[in-house]
Structure formats: structure tokens, C-alpha cells
Amino acid sequence: MFRLLEETGFTRVRSVVVPRFRFRKSSTQSSAEAFGVKAVVMTAIRPAGS
Amino acid sequence: MTESTEISASLEGVLKDEILRMYQEVADNPRNEFHFFHGREAAELFEYDPAWLDRAPEGAVNSFAGVGNPHQRSSLKAGETVLDLGSGAGLDSIIAFWQVGPTGSVIGLDLNATMCRKAEAHAAAAGARLDCRTGAMEHIPVPDASVDVAISNGVINLSFRKRRVLQELFRVLKPGGRISVADIVSAKQLSQSIVNDPKLWAS
Predict the structure, then answer these.
(1) What are the E-state strand segments in chain B?
(2) What's the pTM value of the predicted model, to 2 decimals?
(3) Would you say the ipTM is above 0.90?
């Protein structure tokens, strides 16, 4: 999604991981970890003049 | 329309139904256990200000189903117009209104009309003003360049057409406007079996 934001025209795209995010069920959490699934907070700006 | 796009459109319809069903269940039966954390437990996990959670209507807090805290980086200011993409039971919209104040405004967007009315009722009970619109995030029913800040919490990942959603966010934001979006991302391409499973996708 980070790349998509930039391709859409957003600038100053930033992301930070939500450190305490996890799934309740351990089986779901394990699958998520296997795919590198994580929660992030992304910020970006529509440039002035765009 | 090609065969693949027909299949995608069909799957997207199934997915939309599953998303509506799952989040309606969270709203209707917040005491149930889901495979994701929800309610006050989730909000505290993501470091929502406990004072906000004490002040917000119980129904909005109990049905919270976000994946992070978009308010930590939204830097909302008095008088701003905020769009809450996927506003659900309204907790994030209410918190946003408390920050932009009576000179600002908050527009919610949800697929589910009943949920929109519930969010507006929660907002009214919290002394907040919320204009919740029913619609899809791929076609946001908001004019061009009319929003200062868009927030969202665990919603964009549910769309099959993320590029389209981001284009819509770009369109509705004023030049210089910003987004603060909490969401799920994956470092690896998900397998087709996961992509084709509406229950897993909706989670």
C-alpha cells in the first residue's frame, strides 16, 4: 500500500508499525506471521498545487 | 468484460457480503469472541486515551474493530473537515469530532446504512456531530477537494481495488490535505487460497 500511495500522487508517505497488534487466535497469528502480515499507521499528504 | 474480471466481480460481491455480515455481527454481538481483538480491549491495546474511551458511548467502544490508532498521527486541528473511511460504530469519528470541535466537521462513510445510523446516534449521545454517508470506499460520495484529513482504521485492506480507494482519497482531499490510516499490510503475496476465501479476506 506504501507504493500505491506514492503512485497515486501522495507525498511524504510514512509508516510506523503498530507494535501491539496481533490476532486473538494463535493459529491466525501464526499464519499472519508466516506472510509477514502486520498492522501499520500510514500518513501521507496530497501535495499543495496538485 | 473478460472471464477473469467476471470472476473478480463475482468474488468481490461475495466478499462485500461477508464484510457486511462480519462487522454487523461485531456491532450486534460485541460480547462474542472474534479472531481479532475488538472493543475496549483492542482500543486499549492500541493506546487510545482511556479518557476518550470513558467518555464515548459504550456501544461505540464495544463495537470498535480497528487495527491501530490513526489519531496518534492525524494532528487534527480545530475547524478541520475530517473523513472517516469505514466509520463503523463511530468511535474514531467521535474522537475526531472532539478534536476538530464545533467549527469543524466529520463525515463518516460505511457500506452499511444501519451502521451509519448507529454511528450517528452514538455521536449525538457523545455531543458530537457526524454526517455518516452510506457507500463504498471505491466511490466516496464526497465532492472533490473538500476534506482536510482522512482517517481510516482497518478498512482499506478489505477492498479488492486498493488503488481505486487511494485515488478516491486523493480526489476528496484538499491540496495539502493529509491521511492517517491504520491498516493491515503483508510483506508477502498472499496465496490464492487466502485471496479467494471471503472469510479470511474479511478478517
Answers:
(1) 81-85, 105-110, 130-134, 147-153, 173-186
(2) 0.87
(3) yes
